[in-house]
Amino acid sequence: FGGHRDTPVPGTCGAVTIDGRRAMAVEIQSLIAKATTPSPRRGVNGLDSSRVAMLLAVTEQAADLTVAGQDVFVATVGGARLTDPATDLAVCIALASAAWGTPMPPDVAVVGEVALSGDIRPVSFMDQRIAEAARLGYERLLVPKGSRRGAAPPSLHIVEVSHLNVALNRLRDLARAADSARVPKP
Asked: By three-state DSSP, how is residue 10 classified?
């Protein structure tokens, strides 16, 4: 998905979802902007809007963000319709990335259901998700704690996270490291 960009952009996050029994990569996009009307707008395409509203609230709390006076838009790339709760973590990370103005590294994908408490819960079909992430060239995959059962492909580094704030801190650190690697040294 990110292959058409020269540099990563804030507000995007890759995930691996299940469609039937087939794993496939998806990209979640988010935009947070200053509201131009007294009532900030919320727009959702390709996802359940009530679930996105809940994930926005959980992300605000975990990342210590406030978006009350801002318009928030969340969408899937290519018009995909997603109902898999394993894309929750990608929605949260896309929202935080947009709010921070910090792009996430394009070689990272995430999988995980996010609870109201911010806990990241395990999901089904993890072996298929891991195999698909490796096949598509992702180098790192964030997964719920306890999801690593078998050996991962050597090209894929699996990072287990138990809570949304841990995942956000981890990805923020990765984004900073990737950004500093892109800055030319004098």
From this structure: coil
Residue 77: both structure tokens together: 């790339």
Tokens of 13: 């996050």
Torsion over CA: 171, 20, 52, 25 (sign): positive
In degrees and rounded to multiples of 5, residue 155 shows phi and psi of -80, -5
The full length of the chain comes to: 186
110-157 pLDDT, tens digit per residue, is 999 999 999 999 999 999 999 999 999 999 999 999 887 677 788 899
List CB contacts of 8: < 8 A, sequence separation 6 or more: 2, 103, 104, 105, 106, 178
Under 8 Å CB-to-CB from 27, ≥6 apart: which residues?
1, 2, 12, 13, 14, 15, 76, 77
